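Below is a filled-in request sheet from our internal design queue. Each sheet records the structural input a requester submitted and the sequence that came back. We keep these sheets so that new team members can see what a complete request looks like end to end.

REQUESTER: design group, bay 2
PRIORITY: normal
MODE: inverse folding
CHAIN LENGTH: 402
BACKBONE (tokenized):
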């Protein structure tokens, strides 16, 4: 029994970690807004996103194991240095913006307990730098998964909210009001947030760093991550639907805590959000910062291993430090975090089609015969990536008011 448990734990890795990072502060607010505005109707969307996540991220894992190279490194090898630079540069901008969202979420958690942003944000940045600069890939991965597991507190919150089982079940079969712009916007927001561009860069590089070679084991890791992240999203939606339906818009962690307080209690609501949002935001900071550092180092062909000392990979560690410090600084000096976060989401939506196109092209160019996509895999990829591209562009259009 003990051997089986250790084997199961050994499988856990980049798939679970990057999926938990996907359920970040912005995703929590999006899921809560979905439940508060439309009740349980968007539960069907959350369920349908599980296979979409799996298909896309399984292909990323397949590329990593078959080639032993990161995503940007493969772009450079097959499409040239200019395209690799474009991909790495776009990702770096996206990551810096994503960090603003995460640090803003951490600032909101601190403010729930009366801790000012000027204390919370620098402290979080120092912890993030200490974790990665001290080296050791597997240790970073274990700490990251532990932080992400705090998100499961939202499942407890959903149960404590005592939702009607009949109403929850009805959410999967009720008519979808696709003719209403507000509903379509939230569908686009939920779908657009399910596969972030930085997830693809991070998972492929992390699998190479961790030297995992069993596709079967990695598929299990990806599947577990896809299910877990959507369970968390569904739990937030259910908790919000049971307690907040019809209460209006939510924009911050503080808004959500205040709205949940009557059902969960003032202290309990703050603790739930502190654990769930805090853990998710810290994990997302680790993942997006490493994704940027790995990507740029890959584009330049420079050393980039977490198991390498700082003096042997100064560019990689320097990039990580600069990205974390830059994100923290932007939060401390920005006057409108909401506006900045919206611009980040628009940029991510515009970047995703480019990343998915590269992913599909690499699937045909870089995969050797044993790993090549069969017909059913190609159909599944088209069914998953096609709607993602369309909805990402739709989301960007809605956000831009087009």
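RETURNED SEQUENCE:
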């Amino acid at each position: 029994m003990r051997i089986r448990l250790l084997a199961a734990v050994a499988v856990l890795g980049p798939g679970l970690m990057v999926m938990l990072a996907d359920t970040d502060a912005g995703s929590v607010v999006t899921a809560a807004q979905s439940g508060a505005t439309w009740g349980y109707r968007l539960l069907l969307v959350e369920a349908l996103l599980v296979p979409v996540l799996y298909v896309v991220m399984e292909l990323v894992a397949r590329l990593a194991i078959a080639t032993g190279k990161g995503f940007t490194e493969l772009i450079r090898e097959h499409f040239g240095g200019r395209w690799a630079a474009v991909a790495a540069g776009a990702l770096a901008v996206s990551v810096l913006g994503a960090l603003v969202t995460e640090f803003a979420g951490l600032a909101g958690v601190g403010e729930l307990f009366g801790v000012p942003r000027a204390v919370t944000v620098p402290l979080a940045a120092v912890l993030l730098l200490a974790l990665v600069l001290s080296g050791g890939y597997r240790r970073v991965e274990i700490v990251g998964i532990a932080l992400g597991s705090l998100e499961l507190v939202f499942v407890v919150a959903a149960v404590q909210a005592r939702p009607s089982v009949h109403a929850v079940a009805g959410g999967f079969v009720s008519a979808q009001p696709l003719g209403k712009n507000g509903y379509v916007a939230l569908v686009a927001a939920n779908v657009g947030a399910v596969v972030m561009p930085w997830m693809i860069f991070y998972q492929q590089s992390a699998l190479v760093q961790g030297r995992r070679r069993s596709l079967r084991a990695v598929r299990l890791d990806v599947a577990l991550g896809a299910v877990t992240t959507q369970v968390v999203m569904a739990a937030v939606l259910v908790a919000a639907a049971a307690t907040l339906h019809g209460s209006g818009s939510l924009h911050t962690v503080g808004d959500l805590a205040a709205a949940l307080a009557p059902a969960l209690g003032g202290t309990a609501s703050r603790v739930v959000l502190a654990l769930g949002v805090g853990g998710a935001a810290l994990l997302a900071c680790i993942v997006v910062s490493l994704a940027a550092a790995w990507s740029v180092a890959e584009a330049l062909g420079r050393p980039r291993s977490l198991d390498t000392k700082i003096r042997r990979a100064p560019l990689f560690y320097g990039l990580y430090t600069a990205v974390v410090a830059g994100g923290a600084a932007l939060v401390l000096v920005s006057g409108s975090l909401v506006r900045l976060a919206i611009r980040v989401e628009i940029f991510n939506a515009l970047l995703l089609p480019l990343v998915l196109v590269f992913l599909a092209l690499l699937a045909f160019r870089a995969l050797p015969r044993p790993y090549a996509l069969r017909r059913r895999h190609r159909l599944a990829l088209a069914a998953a990536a096609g709607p993602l591209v369309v909805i990402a562009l739709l989301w960007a259009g809605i956000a831009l008011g087009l």
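SHEET NOTES:
- The CA atoms of residues 31 and 114 lie 25 Å apart.
- Residues 9-396 form a domain with the Amino acid/polyamine transporter I fold (CATH 1.20.1740.10).
FILED BY: M.R.
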